[in-house]
Amino acid sequence: MNAAPPASSPLARWLTGPRFAGMPVLSDDLPAPLLSFEFFPPRTEALEQQLWACIRRLEPLAPRFVSVTYGAGGSTQARTHATVARIVTDTTLTPAAHLTCVGASRGEVDDVARQYWDAGIRHIVALRGDVPGGAAYEPHPDGYAYAADLVAGLKRIADFEISVAAYPEIHPTATSPLADLDNLKRKLDAGATRAITNYFFDNPTFLRFLDLALAAGITAPIVPGIMPVSNYAQIVKFSGTSGVKVPAWLGRYFEGVEDDMETRRMIAAHIAAEQVRTLQANGIDEFHFYTLNRPDLTYAIAHILGVRPTAGT
Ligand SMILES: Cc1cc2nc3c(=O)[nH]c(=O)nc-3n(C[C@H](O)[C@H](O)[C@H](O)COP(=O)(O)OP(=O)(O)OC[C@H]3O[C@@H](n4cnc5c(N)ncnc54)[C@H](O)[C@@H]3O)c2cc1C
Questions:
Q1: Which atom of ligand 1 is nearest the CA belonging to 126?
Q2: Fewest C-beta in 10 Å: which of 15, 36, 160, 171?
């Protein structure tokens, strides 16, 4: 009779270790996922050119929409408006304009929303926003206090399509995970039809969040926000107070290639594509990419996922 293999041997690991199903393969049976892309409004002429080169490169991928962020307290109001308005007039894309209510009266926010509507923008990503400089949030005395109030206000102005923010790792100032889910439900009940999540790196955390949302009665799509990372030190700093955990394994990928941008970008495409493909294997078929106004990583990842340029763009 053969002796049992030592517990630490490769054979024992093979016999007792978990089995994993294959990742989805590109085939006619697997439709390409639906994608949306996020940009930020440019501050300078050079950044404006970078943004438009980014938009032009990604346009043929026919995303379902592209969104443009809104600076804290309305600091980018004119630039956000100019960017989404130009997307309407000069491209085949459907823009979604972000809008925050922090530091503004209802009248001011409503005016911005009306200007969006008049410029042909029909989709708003409605957010509370943060106080610039990191001070504790206080609602404006005449303002919309929270994003749920903003959603209701926008719906009174016009029949906008509205997306809202969600936090798989919980919003950093939420009193509890359940309170945060209640808040998400309030935003959807007020008229939003989709949630887009903050970026995250741990897929099980996102999948558990979906389970909890469903248990809380949330059935609207919760679209994972994907942040391709090519600079580990930068993402650690950027994630500081946001509640997003940056796992140690992510850092290991970049050990020793800190000064090698080309290799870091290849690694970034691999990590993000693997994250998305694992989520696809769990049935998720729409994704929102934080492009940081740089198209190449997003383009490469989209290509890996089977998203190809459409004719005529
Ligand atoms: C997809 C996405 C896009 C974003 N785009 C931008 C952008 O363009 N510009 C920008 O400045 N920021 C942006 N943000 C950041 C966002 O503004 C911040 O995360 C902000 O802190 C919370 O915004 P919210 O809309 O989620 O707020 P809310 O949904 O209002 O929630 C904020 C916090 O308040 C709590 N809360 C809600 N209602 C109540 C209540 N009645 N009483 C007590 N507590 C309550 C919630 O649980 C949560 O902790 C974005 C975030 C995401 C995920």
A1: 25
A2: 15
Whether 33 contacts 276, CB under 8 Å:
yes
CA pseudo-torsion sign 272, 36, 213, 184: positive
Q: Report if residue 312 sits inside a domain.
A: no
**Atom 29 in ligand 1: which residue has the minimum CA distance?**
147
Amino acid sitting at position 1: M
**Does the residue 14 lie in any domain?**
no
Give burial (CB, 10 Å; 0-12/13-18/19+) of 201.
buried
Distance in angstroms (rounded) separating the CA atoms of residues 252 and 254: 5
Specify the residue for token string 């080309």: 262
- Joined together, the tokens standing for residue 175 give 């009193």
Catalytically active residues are 38
Cβ(183) – ligand 1 distance below 6 Å: yes
Yes or no: say if 205 and 246 are a contact pair by the CB < 8 Å rule.
no
- In sequence order, the 6+-apart residues with CB closer than 8 A to the CB of 121 are 84, 85, 88, 95, 96, 97
Please tell me if the CB atom of residue 153 comes closer than 6 angstroms to any atom of ligand 1: no
Take atom 25 of ligand 1 and give the residue whose Cα is closest: 127
Alpha-carbon distance 55 to 256, whole Å?
Answer: 33
Is 225 a pocket residue for ligand 1 (Cβ < 6 Å)? Answer: yes
Rounded Cα distance, 82 and 80, in Å: 6
Whether residue 173 lies inside any domain: the answer is yes
Model pLDDT for residues 190-241, shown as the tens digit of each residue:
999 999 999 999 999 999 999 999 999 999 999 999 999 999 999 999 998 8
- φ and ψ at residue 191, rounded to 5 degrees: 135, -5
In ligand 1, which atom is closest to the CA atom of 99?
Answer: 8
What separation in Å is there between the alpha carbon of 237 and the centre of ligand 1? Answer: 20
Q: Name which of 109, 147, 143 is nearest 127 in CA terms.
A: 147
Asked if residue 11 is part of any domain, the answer here is no
**Nearest residue by C-alpha to atom 34 in ligand 1:** 174
pLDDT tens digits, one per residue of 32-47: 999 999 999 999 999 9
0.90 surpassed by pTM? yes
